[in-house]
Amino acid sequence: MGKMIRAVVVPRALQAVMVAWTVGTLTFVLTRALPGDMAYRIAAGRYGYDNVDAAAAAAVRQELGLDQPPLLAYASWLWDLLTLNLGRDMVSNEPVWSEVTHQVGHSLVLALVAIAFAVLLGPALGVAAGLRRRGALDHASLALSTALRSVPPFILGIGLILVVAVELRWLPAAGHGGFAHAVLPGLALALGLAAVSSRVTRNAVVAVARSPFFAFARTKGLGEALAFRRHGVRNVAVPVVSYFGVQLIYLIEGVVVVESLFAWPGIGHALVHAIVARNVPMIQGTALVMGLMFVALNAVVDGICWGLDPRRRAS
Amino acid sequence: MLGVSSEALARKDNIIDVVCPWEIGSTDSTRSGHVFRWMSISETLVGVEPDGAMKPLLATAWSVDDSRLVWRFKIREGVTFHNGKPLTADAAAFSLNAARTKPGVLAKSPIAEIAAEGSELVVRLSEPFATLPSLFTHASAQILEAESYDADGNTVKVIGTGPFAITVLQTPQRLAAKAYAGYWGPKPAAEGVTYLAAPRSETRTLMVQSGDADLAFNMDAASLKRLEMTAPVKGFSTPVARTVTLKLNAARPGLDTARGRNAINAAIDRQGIAASILREPKSVANQQFSPMFGDWFLEGLPQFRYDPKFTRAEFKAMGWSEDADGYLAKDGKRLSLVLTTFSDRPELPIIATSIQESLRQAGIEAKVSVNNASAIPAGHHDGSLDMGMLARNYGVVRDPFVVVTEDFRSGGGDWGAMNWGSAELDDLIAKMKLSDGGAEYKALSQRAARIIHDEMPVIPVAWHVQTVAVSKDLANFSIDPFQLTWNLEKVTWAK
Q1: Chain B: nearest CA to A156, how far in angstroms?
Q2: In terms of residue numbers, what domain contains A227?
Q3: What is the mean pLDDT of residues A120-132?
Q4: Number of domains making up chain A
Q5: pLDDT tens digits for B253-269?
Q6: Kind and range of the H or E element at B20?
Q7: Does some domain include residue A164?
Q8: Helix axes B438-455 and B401-408, enclosed angle (nearest 10)
Q9: In the predicted model, what is the mean pLDDT of residues B14-33?
Q10: How far off is chain A from B128, nearest CA to CA, in Å?
Q11: Which domains occur in chain B, in start order?
């Protein structure tokens, strides 16, 4: 356990600190570099465009201290970050922390539903295809996964709504409030993940099935199922789990469009709106949490691989 | 677990599900009060009839004294807030005073003091202001209970007096409300209402098709026609108090005379925009204010001519000539203007692009710049704006007077004229502040509308039409043209 903490947890924790600082500084610099007057943008977000005028912008500028020198603003932001104070949303005046936790909660639900669907669909299909290499199922799964991965989640989402919500009326088309609302957006994300993970699994299974140790296991008299369970699964799992780690980026970028299509109040949706409204504390808060989520998920993947693969523990 | 989606799947759940593009930015009535008014959660002192006349709502009557500086509003008796507390003049004054400290129409008005005297709300003004009651129709003037505010006067909850009381509020996207048993008016037929902000029109269309939404707002004309064929839905379109306008910087060469601005006006193909972009023949504007603004609407005006050749000829007559590329130029400088617009209203960039092409035919180089809405007031103030395309709500408070004062007084306003002024119009505005209404007010507003029409500091392009897809399960849906309320309490179920 102590070894794992040294090998996995400590490097990832250091990485988290670096990510927090880099993401924060970059968003700070980039939002300041964007064209347009921040006070006007924030006033437009707050009061709606019918009510933005010079007076509203001036009030915003004064209230938020937007005319303080950038270096001073940066220093005070850095101090707030060290004291874990993310500030207040410039548009709604709610604390950023409470808004981000509300949204991260929704996004995590969506991501978990997506991963659960992807884990159920992808690897199972991959194992079946890999064990019967070049069989009908192998060819069909190749075609299907190519098709699914090449369609963006947004289009997949519209297709799912049309079939499941509009034609069959099994599930609500969009919105949030119950588990049923999470199924379609979760599936829209999961299909793309499952498409590639099924191929990664299939290739890993093929490699294992052709390996000398697997041939030896069969030669010494183990049945195919038992040989696969004893000598296959763990070997197949390592690349598949690492692959899911890499694909989290797909999940996070997919969340942004899928959330907006399904009117799901997640962090991706919030980030887009915060950028439009030049809502700097929200941009920093959401980007920070997304960056840290990334580090945390990678740490979990590392941990799982550590547990699965004795070679890592030995080295 | 899949059966949980009661609000989405069971058709006859007696709940009206609304889907809109507009988010609920905040609980604050000066920021998002319109949503709570639309959904019949909160109410104002004064309401508006469909024809634009003011009607009693939480105030049963009002009057002004001879000095025209003191207004008295009689507060309705027997009204309770959703937390059970009674509506009093004190409560109303507290709520209005909280709203007055934030940017909005109340802050801009000449209100000096709002106080309660017995069962009356007394408003003292710093100068006469004949249209004061219309200010109290605005969503930012909605009356909320004192418990809605924190110690700093920020709204933290929405405790109104309307027929529906909030049960769930998840900013920025969702709210649910149930019928309030203690409501003072007729009981609504619906047991509750829900609101979902879905920014993508694809989502709204699909939600109507799947039966998840009963009312879907801001449907583009083409989707609405298709929906009527494929889903149990009726299209509903009603002219609203918004005008799509082209704001001109009257300090730019070519835009600095009424003749030049009218020449540019002739290059705008309103019939084409109405037919192929807005798909609504009623949207063709022949003046700034649509017929719903009775006092301000000029009867008997013809449609504007569309004739880019005329535009070119007019500029030539004013001393402009064509350069090598066929564009109009004067003193070696081409007539080249940036047309700034924004995409909050999806039709604006499309209309702007069509105008860019019409102007090109007339010899004027226009470059469309799709920006954030705030680029227009910001450009107004730093003087960098050439032309701005926007959708101006002249009915913010029923009578366009407040907006006209802001937009067309000398020097112009953030969303109105720019570097333009008319001494006569300033004079009319001063007189209208003192007017008691009636025929005198009408004569003054007609003259004001005429000046704006002839001088053309802002070009009216189209009158806005609100489109809604309405489920055939609903009956008696209506929307007031001022978009203050959607009258959900009057909606019943179709047999």
Answers
A1: 13
A2: 97-314
A3: 85
A4: 1
A5: 999 999 999 999 999 99
A6: strand B15-20
A7: yes
A8: 40
A9: 88
A10: 23
A11: 42-148 (3.40.190.10), 240-465 (3.10.105.10)
